[in-house]
Amino acid sequence: MPAVTADTLTLPRLPELAEPTAWRGVHRIIQGRRFLEGEGFQVRRPFPGVDLSLADPFLLLDHMGAVEYGPGEAKGAPWHPHRGFETVTYIIDGAFEHTDSIGGGGLITNGSTQWMTAGAGILHNEMPPQELVIKGGLFHGVQLWVNLPRELKMVTPRYQDIDAHDATLLSSVDGGALVRVIAGSLAGHDGPGVTYTPITYLHATVSPGAQLAMPWPEDFNAMVYVLSGRGTAGEEDRPLDEGQLAVFGPGTALTVRAAGRQPANSPTGWEILVLGGQPLHEPIARYGPFVMNTRQEIVQAMEDYQAGRLGQIPAEHLAHRTSADERLT
Ligand code: MN
Predict the structure, then answer these.
(1) How far is the CA of 125 from the centre of ligand 1 (A)?
(2) Which of 19, 48, 181, 235 has the highest Cβ tally under 10 A?
(3) Segment holding 100, helix H or strand E
């Protein structure tokens, strides 16, 4: 897997946690459900589910792949709007080409992250590059939606391109886990992503049998999602496998452990996302790509979109899309 790797022995280490530690217990294990998104690519979605408030301030987690596309099979999400939150796209294998109505965009690939603050409104597309469409290949990534508080829902749209090598790399106490801090902070080490809502978002590779223990802000919620492999969550060792999300209860630290034997599709160890943030505790009105506080604001968003006030598809991309469609069909 081409997400950035490093020799953990050379990295700053997470602190040894003094006993007694207020370890967070596992509140729930949620199985990600399968959905089709965009032009029809499959995602596993641990949330939103029955209880969206568990994930607050996060709104959605879509795990894309891992999938080995054949020639002509790769799919994306053509032009669509967003308002009222942020989309965070992390691509581990393969690539997405992103273009938006404020001139942002680029290739998201091999461990890089694209952080798009939709705020007041944006149009964008997220498509596999031509080479991936034509030749096929491995594709594996994640899209996370981070909510914005009421006073920032209509903020000016913003785009951050975070290269794989910008991630802050840390090691667990004994070097058995590699931690990539994408946004927020872990044990005083800041990641590159700038967020409005206070969150921490990281990708860890935990070697077979190794433990990863982390201090975690008491006022954040805490979740661990498994990209591949198997392990256990919490001091109580609750089994946690690929496609499952552990939601932790209150406390000041988290602990997880990789199983001693890993499946063939996860040869480097247990691949997990660890995420948490300060819950907003605000009402949520959502309709497709719009997430606001009230139904009236959703109606306004739809009117604004139809009137072109969320942005326009750049003319050169209209032309590009047409020629690409003709080539493929
Ligand atoms: Mn989108």
Answers:
(1) 7
(2) 181
(3) strand 95-100
